[in-house]
Design a protein that fits this description.
This protein has three domains: 3-100 and 200-260, Adenylosuccinate Synthetase, Chain A, domain 1 (3-Layer(aba) Sandwich); 104-195, Adenylosuccinate Synthetase, subunit A, domain 2, CATH 1.10.300; 265-422, Adenylosuccinate Synthetase, subunit A, domain 3 (Adenylosuccinate Synthetase, Chain A, domain 3, Alpha-Beta Complex), CATH 3.90.170.10. It contains 13 helices and 20 strands. It has helices spanning 16-24, 76-88, 108-120, 134-142, 149-152, 157-174, 182-196, 203-212, 244-249, 284-292, 311-321, 360-365, 391-404, and strands at 3-8, 29-32, 41-45, 48-52, 65-68, 73-74, 97-100, 104-105, 200-201, 217-220, 260-266, 269-271, 305-307, 309-310, 325-329, 339-348, 351-353, 367-374, 408-412, 420-422. The strands form five sheets. It has a ten-stranded mixed beta sheet, with helices on both faces. The chain is globular. The protein binds inosinic acid. Inosinic acid is lined by residues 12-13, 38-40, 127-130, 132, 134-135, 222-223, 227, 238-239, 272-273.
């Protein structure tokens, strides 16, 4: 298998960072194709913990090359800070990280517009964004008003930036918000460019040549399908294509060059920010999951909302992303629970439905239909072979496979690399 797309199959925070790290061993290239520094991928290696937001997690494995593709929106100042943090821990970035000249740039006015946009929405309409300027940057891209990394290294850049800053300042002023200082934005961007300029290139021929040579490419999805701009719980979504299609449009590698899709699925469900969440637990059981799973945002530190496993969501990921196998994460978090619930369908206005509705007001009225399974009440964290899992843990996994129609190929039983079982030998 030379090209693998890895996607989040829920609302993000499925534990993708660790699975990417494990799969990176079998890859030559790791590519980010959508999102920006709203993502937070946590990887624990030995006693060290890394949280990466923009740099592909592959950077942590020596010899691997990483690409930030055209579909990403990139805050240059934040990226340089992240690169410095990685380098400070003895990891070389030069010659290993390539940034698409087509990737759109996030400027301070995008972050300010993000904050203003949230503040001005009525209560109940707020999205709970990460305030990293993601939505406004993608809006400028679609409105054909954005600037790309290639523009930053162009001699015309100061003129291009000036017209953007003037226009955005008109908008900010009309909102009664503070405006940005052109000189400061220009200076900060130029300073960041001193580091980034050598990394910016046309990544399309680079990846094309890698595919032609049969090199192994891992596409590192950010967020999850339920935050996808089209297939998620719109409007409570992020502004990029977090499904498998985003790997193609965000990198320039076409669909017929993709070999396999791995969906990362947490053994229960979480969500950060606003928006409907049918299996959410607003009780002690939800608090237990948050405590046991240490469910606090890697980017914003916000407590995550927690709930039972939702097969309707997982099947939505299968249909929209073509998931070939699951990487099932955080099964160990359920170790102490006496009983577990799996949501297999919803009740909506007295009808039973098996598919995820498009309309969020309908989603908010959906009541989960649960199937109860016994817990295993034994630690799985040291288990090294699938056969050694407690019988009830095996039953839980088998039931997840049945109700989603997709096999589990990778099983994660803790945050460290070695707490991973690869069940599918082709992986
Ligand atoms: P934005 O991407 O900052 O515009 O935020 C939009 C929604 O997506 C909010 O509910 C965020 O909490 C959520 N979100 C964005 N990135 C992530 C992520 O990497 N993990 C989980 N939730 C995210």
């Amino acid at each position: 298998m030379s090209t693998t797309i890895l996607i989040g199959a829920q609302w993000g925070d499925e534990g993708k960072g660790k699975i990417i790290d494990v799969l990176t061993e079998r890859a030559d290239w790791v590519v980010r194709a959508q999102g920006g520094n709203n993502a937070g991928h946590t990887v624990e290696i030995g006693a060290e913990k890394f949280v990466l937001h923009l740099v592909p997690s592959g950077i942590l494995t020596s010899g691997k090359r990483c690409v930030i593709g055209n579909g990403v929106v990139l805050d240059p100042v934040a990226l340089v800070e992240e690169i410095r943090g990685v380098e400070a821990r003895g990891i070389a970035v030069a010659g290993r990280l390539f940034i698409s000249d087509r990737a759109h740039v996030v400027f301070p006015y995008h972050c300010m517009l993000d904050a203003q946009g949230e503040a001005r929405r009525a209560k109940g309409d707020q999205i709970g964004t990460t305030q990293r300027g993601i939505g406004p940057a993608y809006a400028d891209k679609a409105a054909r008003f954005g600037l790309r990394m290639g523009d930053l290294v162009d001699p015309e850049f100061p003129v291009l930036l000036k017209s953007r800053v003037e226009e955005k300042n008109r908008v900010l002023a009309a909102m009664g918000a503070p405006v940005v200082a052109y000189d400061e934005v220009l200076a900060a961007t130029r300073q960041a460019l001193a580091t980034l300029r050598p990394l910016v290139c046309d990544t399309v021929p680079l990846l094309h040549a890698a595919v032609e040579r049969g090199e192994r490419i891992l596409f590192e999805g950010a967020q999850g399908i339920m935050l996808d701009l089209d297939f998620g719980t719109y409007p409570f979504v992020t502004s990029s294509s977090a499904g498998s299609g985003g790997a193609c449009t965000g990198s320039g590698v076409p669909p017929n060059r993709m070999d396999r899709v791995v969906g990362v699925l947490k053994a229960y469900t979480t969500r950060v920010g606003e928006g409907p969440f049918p299996t959410e637990l607003n009780d002690a059981a939800g608090e237990d999951l948050r405590r046991l799973g240490r469910e606090f945002g890697a980017t914003t530190g916000r407590p995550r909302r927690c709930g039972w496993f939702d097969a309707v969501v997982a099947r939505h990921a299968v249909m929209t992303c073509g998931v070939d196998e699951w990487a099932l994460t955080k099964l160990d978090v359920l170790d102490t629970l006496a009983t577990l619930n799996i949501c297999t369908a919803y009740e909506l206005d007295g009808r039973r439905i098996a598919h995820f509705p498009a309309n969020v007001r309908e989603v908010a009225r959906c009541r989960p239909v649960y199937e109860e399974l016994p817990g295993w009440q034994a630690s799985t964290r040291q288990v090294a072979r699938f056969a050694d899992l407690p019988e009830n843990a095996k039953r839980y996994i088998a039931r997840l496979e049945q109700v989603t129609g997709v096999p589990v190929g990778i099983l994660s039983l803790g945050p460290r690399r070695e707490q991973t079982l690869i069940l599918n030998e082709d992986a």
